[in-house]
Design a protein that fits this description.
Blueprint (H helix, E strand, L loop, with lengths): L4 E3 L10 E6 L9 E3 L2 E15 L2 E6 L2 E5 L5 E5 L5 E8 L1 H11 L2 H9 L5 E3 L2 H12 L9 H21 L10 H10 L2 H4 L3 H8 L3 H11 L4 H19 L4 H7 L5 H12 L3 H15 L2
Parallel strand pairs: 1-3
Antiparallel strand pairs: 2-8, 4-5, 4-6, 4-7, 4-8, 6-9
Helix pairs in contact: 5-7, 9-12
Amino acid sequence: MNTYNCFTTNSIDKESEFHYHFYSNIRDTADIHYHNFYELFLITKGTMIHIVNNNEQLLSKGHLVFIRDTDIHYYKKNSNMNCEFINLAFFKETLVQMFKYLDKYNLFENLLTQLMPPTVFLTNMEFEDAERRLRNLNLLPHINKNRINLELRTILVDFFSKYFYENEQKIELIPTWLQFINLEMNKKENFSKGLVKLYEFSNKTPEHVSRSFKKFYHKTPSTFVNELRLNYAANLLIHSDKPILDISLETGFENLSYFYTLFKKYYSISPLKFRKLNQTNFMNNNT
């Protein structure tokens, strides 16, 4: 255990009993560590690889994770994709008091005894509400510790009762085979080949793969692949001078018209206008 960094409650404000931070990049996070307090973190954008207790979790926008004091973990970038998340740290006793108040201490003990951190994937509506409430913490006056404490305790009660108690069946790990697909399909040489490559990695029936994607990622395999392709295409449009036809072919869209249709549906703007707008913004920011 001495080989890991240990973070203590010294980083948590004693009056508000909480510490929260908005991370816009994985590189700003700590190396492998553990701590003597609890954390919740919500992925708000992109994906990350969460290395925890000698296992890998592939997490994406909408995942809410409860980190205990027994968890040893760190965050790693997933391919070339960035990830943004909100982290909420709090005293162990604060959570103990909350579960005793709710008369749900058995659930609390269950959350602590799981081998991996309890993880839930929020629906779109749940995610929007959770993200809004966490971001609204920035609106609280920083000198009013009592108000911050009250708001954060309310958030804890709501998050654990709504997402970990009422939806206890959601607390399950994404299957290893599905995590493997996600990791491999984030590579250009694979997502450019489309669903054929995805099904090849799965070694399962297309029907089973489709059900699993909808259950754990709330999207179809086709949508999953197209989002990877379009994200890569958007980066090429911004950061290269490649012709749009070449970008379409490189990302696996052999039909240029179809590429335009999907891109406009996803970004609400054509690839050409997207390139002009973003390259213009880049030039303006560097003059």
